[in-house]
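Cross-check.
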Amino acid sequence: MEDRINVHTELFQWLNQQTDLSSYQVDLVDGFVFMLKKIKRHKLIRLTRKGELHPRFWKSHDRTFGYQLMKGKKQQTAHLYRFYVDVAMAEQLLVANGDRIQLTDKGDEYLKLSADGQLDLLFRHIW
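Predicted model, tokenized:
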């Protein structure tokens, strides 16, 4: 049985605002791959609570993609970032070890997929 992920309507609204119909670039996949590659490069990333990456991790993601999803004093994880972690955990691309998270062999294999294959995996959790 496949793990179900709750996808908030706010994520769909935000994705719709980001969509450039004249572009072939898919930011959804780029951001997900960026997250996995960064975790792979650093080996272990600290969690603040079960399943939540430290806000500094996402702030650098915001700077790279220009999203500004982690602005404000509350530092609540944005729906997009929550979706990324939920998918990665459900697909066993990441594994939590205590208060740290790391890339699995399956996650490494995902990074070797074509862009279409990577996108297919994400879309399976949206539709």
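Helices lie at 9-18, 27-42, 55-65, 79-90, 105-111, 115-124. Strands lie at 45-49, 52-53, 94-97, 100-103. Passed to J.P. for a second look.
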